Amino acid sequence: MKQISAAEAIELLKKGDNAKPLLTGYTITEPLAITEPFNSQPISDCKFQSVSITANAAISFSFNGCAFANGLELDGVTNDYFGVSSCTMGGTLTIKNCNILTLHIKGGTTNIHEVDFRGTKILHELMIRNVNHVSFDSKSSVEDRFLISERCGSLYFDGKFKQLEMGKCTPIKESIKAHFVGTFNSIKVVRCKRVELHFDKLDADETSLILNKESSLFFDSGKMKDVTIEGGHYLLMKFVAQTDIKLRVIKAKDSDAEKEKVSKEAQIDNLDLAAFIANEKNKLHFNNVDFRKVNLDSFDNYGFFQVNGSKIRDEILLTNTILRDANFNDVEFLKTCTINIRDSYLLKTTFTNVRWPSDYKIYPINNSPISDLDPAELKKLRESYRQLKLNYISSGNKFEALEFQKHEYDIHYEITKKDLGKNWRSWTLIGNFLIMWTHKYASVFSQSVLKPFAFLLGGHLVLFFFFLKVHSLGVEFGLDHPTCDAFWKGFGLYWTTMFPTHPFDIISFYSNQKVNIMGGLDTLMRIWSAYFIFYFISASRKYHL
Fold it and tell me: In which domain of life is the source organism classified (predicted)?
């Protein structure tokens, strides 16, 4: 490759044109400053220290297959077309105070390190490929189409953009970091892999995110009038600060999903709305989404929040959250899902056809055992069950309300047990504990008919044994001289005395005389029977509205 000076390179530019380009295959040994107008032509296969252009080509010019050791700068250039194709650049490509109709930039086998736009207007089309870093200041704009594709590293968009599209981008290293700060008519990110999209203080009319893989989204203030996410796999979707946003997550087209070999339903590993305040203008609609984790810690919803036709696999966290009129419709919490709810307001939230885990259990924070929680934490957990119970009752769904009521009472049992442990001499606490103990173990909080029936029969059998010992009624328990007649008489007497309204005088089978059975044992039998008959009736009527 022949070496020439900067002055010789300028002469070749003046003599060459598109039909006969002359600056081809040279090594320019010193910095090249182009300060005078030159003919339109491609500059090919050259090696430069650095290039500075402050003059205009007649119509267009381009660098093809060139290498720049220390960068390329355009300052104040006005041209119809400028291109950088299959070039490598150790420094920065700086484009400032320029007005260019069409600009194409494509790195070579090693990417262009950085492209920096300052106060520049691209009037028709901007295409960028294989560039490590791209940045725009607030005075720059792309008036029409802007396409970024292939390999890239970090992107910073401040300024004004009409139609920005990132298509099939892949990261140079771990991920692509793209920051959107300016004003956008349209943003489209399609089939990109491992891209972090930061929407910071921007103003965007329309945003489409289609079938992106292993990517992350950060919404950090600004206005986004219409955001549509079609399919794709997102590691994280985080709402950082208050943002005016209308967002829809929907299925992608079957043909597109099949082509990309991904599920048409969106997959979001972590939806993070922690400390986010959704104002009246916010609309967040998640449709047919496969979530792994949903974090709604300190989420305050004044807008529209709906999850429809979706699954939550691992965890949902609602702490210090006010959902208000949020809606969960056709949502499934898988059996592996841990549900944490504490200090949250759920009474106005709509749960329609929600498939809870089979045990309907809410877990404490950090999944601590119930026995390890102090009464204050237990009361918070009880309140969560109470709100869910009342929510389902208000919607007419008593069946699932009973499931939450069972857990509410179970937590209250734990509270009474801990209270009694601190003050075991209190008769009030002893009475409360005994009531809750029998309510839990003898009836599963009025949801089992078998347990109270078993307690009724078994307990009455024990009392009946002593009853026959105390009163001479002509029959008694024992294996000495058993007869069928005695058995059936005793059997009938067993059932007669089981009813709380049984008579105070019973005719003795031995003397055929009335025997007064009033006393402490008879009173205890009546109380026992009444108590467990009540539990039996309550459980048998649990589904009666």
Answer: Bacteria
